[in-house]
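Researcher: I'm preparing a figure for a lab meeting and need a structural model of a single chain. I don't have an experimental structure, so a prediction will have to do for now. The sequence is pasted below. Please return the structure as tokens so I can convert it later.
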Amino acid sequence: MTDLARKVSVGIIGLGRLGSRHAKHLVEKIQGVKLVAACALDENQLKWAQESLGVKNTYTDYKKMIDKEDLSAVFIVAPTPFHPEMTIYAMEAGLHVFCEKPLGLDLDEVKKMAEVIHSHPKQIFQSGFMRRYDESYQYAKKLVDDGKIGKIIYMRGYGIDPISGMESFKKFASAADSGGIFVDMNIHDVDLIRWFTNQEPIEAYGLTSNIAAPELAEIGEFETGVAQLKFDGGTIATLIGGRHAAHGNQVELEIMGSDGWLRVGEHPDMNRVTVFNESGVVKPSLQSFGERFDDAFTKEVQDFVQNIAEQKQPSVTVDDGIKALLIAKSCQESANTGKLVTIHYDI
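Model: Understood. Here is the structure written out token by token.
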């Protein structure tokens, strides 16, 4: 590996649930990097960054942070609609950019974002599809690539949050556009299915419901979404997104092959402990995506820093992010219209 003794100076935009996790990792776990500045609108979040992480310089205006600080890279973990403008500003300021998924919500803005990224080939841009860095998915991918389960016939991706997070989601969705159930919940599943199959979806059919949370209709959201995808190589896939898992955080991927099946995360076990008590035989479950993918978040950020040191573009590209967004939005369009949607990759 390239020597990371010379630390990359970075700033972070956004200190919410995911942004604070990234910030903590940058300070405590990532080698070759120094978090020198943070930007957020919430003064309490900025105070936390100063007191808990030792970040000296904080801002409420991301442009001022980029203009004033001597940064090499920026992490964008702000609300999704702002990702394109922030990425464009950072890239044009000469910075490397790590941008969380989704890349944005408006496809025209995302396409402009991609044009700017492609016009700066010496700068590193990496999209936050951290599941590709998870050891279980990587192990399953190797089995597939080595032909251990034959040809992929069908895939199913679950992304269901614990019902305990419903109030937090309602607060978030009331203040900002989530992008809909498929963009918000299933975009990682879309990316994984493309990654495993090396195929592109050509048709999408989506359905949604609010049986478990009818109050979401008041803010234009759905609690459950199910979509079927048909791929150009013949594979069929199902996406299931939701916010009602009573037991914890259910993130699962099933791969049905001609010679065998794989399941990743079939049971969201917190650890290998089984509890025997008055409730019966119980396996404690993970309660958040952060617990489940903490190592993957760390590895993807370390990879970003390593790519900067080596001046090497990442395997996860902006085009991967655009395609995942386009597919997820096609699922939502189908659910909204009740019609089968043909996916056009005019990017």
